[in-house]
Amino acid sequence: MTRHYGPVLALYGVLKLIGFAVFMYLLDSDGGFRTRNPRFGGGAHAWDVLATWDGWWYQQVAAHGYDPALVHVPGATGLITLEGNSAAFFPLYPATMRLVSDGTGLGLYGSGMLVSVVASFAAALGIYAVTARFGGRRAGLAAAGLWAVWPGSGMEWSAYSESLYIALAVWACLAVMTDRWLTAGVLTFAAGLNRPTAVALIAALTVAALQTLHRRRENLAGPWIAMAIAPLGLVGYLLWVGNQMGDLGGYFKLQSGAWAHSFDYGKHTVDVFSAVAVGRFDYLSAFPLEDTIGVAVVLLAALLIPLLIRLRPPAVLTVHTLLTLALVLGSQQIFGNVSRYLLPCFPLFIPLAVKLRTLGLPTLCLLLGIAAVASGSYAGYVLFEVGVP
After folding, report:
1. Separation of alpha carbons 92 and 191, rounded Å
2. What is the SS3 string spanning the chain?
3. Cβ contact 235:218 at 8 Å
């Protein structure tokens, strides 16, 4: 097993260390974090930045739990009319952070980082395993390397929930592909306790399960059980928050009123593309460099989708990717974070990795190494320091 998976872990780890080192160097060289509030991108050390913004909220949940409420800001009439509340942040990641902290004696920051780093390696192995089914070991290795340097990959080693969610999603998809339905259902249930975009994973599992039942025309229990289990985490948390707030739609009202996040059927995305195309940055939550990278990421995704479909992947991969894209691009939010929000679209690595498998191993490592150096800027520094992650 070490011989089989060791190179995957080594390649991913080395590439991430390169990008992370460049990211920390850029943060330290700029030094702006030293003058900022520790909650909003500041701290005594460069690495403190990794647990600010959303990372601060996750630590609050881990330390104090939830007190869901819709509290109006006195006199507010604009986009932000509600006070921020930790109920907007799903419970699995902070619960895991607290469990690791209690078990190891590490602080919440160290525990959150440990969970994210370990989960990122688990995701790399899953991405390798999924991609290897299409193009063999070399393609799987390339895909794991792409996971390390992809736009937004700076979130993988931070006190954010992305790595844990993507590890769960990758292995849930692989479980569906290998007919391990109970495992797929449990992993999707857990993913639903981690991020709201798990609705795409739930839908993907459901489509794949129905397809299996139709194709085999047998009375299979596994797909039915998976479909029953999969949505319980997401739906259960949303209903609990709504009940605690006295408003079943409370979670969505909190996201809209406190963070200006809502589903607008792509209006904000169209506004951003229209403005960036003519060199204007006068739309909601504009961060010019971060948004330009975000536009490039969306265009890259658009180019890779036809190549992915051409490989005729299982429905679980296709549906998960397309629905995640639709959810992200159909929402009003800080557009510059699109490279972070699209990280779960890991199947987009597959067609590119299949092409890269034709390269010799030294050439592949060299190309990924150069991308890793650059990723310290475009995937890390730009997200955390030029914009608001």
Report:
1. 8
2. CHHHHHHHHHHHHHHHHHHHHHHHHHHHHHCHHHHCCCCCCCCCCHHHHHHCCHHHHHHHHHHHCCCCCCCECCCCCCCCCECCCHHHCCCHHHHHHHHHHHHHCCCHHHHHHHHHHHHHHHHHHHHHHHHHHHHHHHHHHHHHHHHHHCCCHHHCCCCCCHHHHHHHHHHHHHHHHCCCHHHHHHHHHHHHCCCCCHHHHHHHHHHHHHHHHHHHCCCCHHHHHHHHHCCHHHHHHHHHHHHHHCCCCHHHHHHHHHHCCEECCCHHHHHHHHHHHCCCCCCCCCCHHHHHHHHHHHHHHHHHHHHHHHCCCCHHHHHHHHHHHHHHHCEECCHHHHHHHCCCCHHHHHHHHHHHCCCCHHHHHHHHHHHHHHHHHHHHHHHHHHCCC
3. no
Measured CA to CA, the distance from residue 78 to residue 179 in angstroms comes to 49
Pull the structure tokens for residue 146. 């792409």
> What is the C-alpha separation between 196 and 237, in angstroms, rounded?
10
- pLDDT tens figures, 359-389: 999 999 999 999 999 999 999 999 999 989 8
Q: Encoding tokens for residue 66? A: 């939830």
pLDDT tens, position by position, 5-31 = 999 999 999 999 999 999 999 999 999
Burial (CB count <10 Å: 0-12, 13-18, 19+), residue 289: middle
Owner of token pair 């909190």: 254
Comparing C-alpha atoms, which of 172, 206, 207 is closest to residue 186? 172
C-alpha distances (whole Å) from 349 to each of 48, 151, 197 are 30, 12, 19
What does the pLDDT look like over 60-86, one tens digit per residue?
999 999 999 999 999 888 889 999 999
Residue 269 is which amino acid?
T
Q: Give me the pLDDT at residue 248, please.
A: 95
Is-contact 231 187, C-beta < 8 A? Answer: no
Gap between the Cα atoms of 229 and 245, Å rounded: 25
Are the CB atoms for 348 and 308 separated by under 8 Å? yes
Q: Which of 313, 385, 319 is nearest to 139 (CA)?
A: 313
Q: Please state the rounded mean pLDDT for residues 308-329.
A: 97
Residue located via tokens 């797929």 = 184
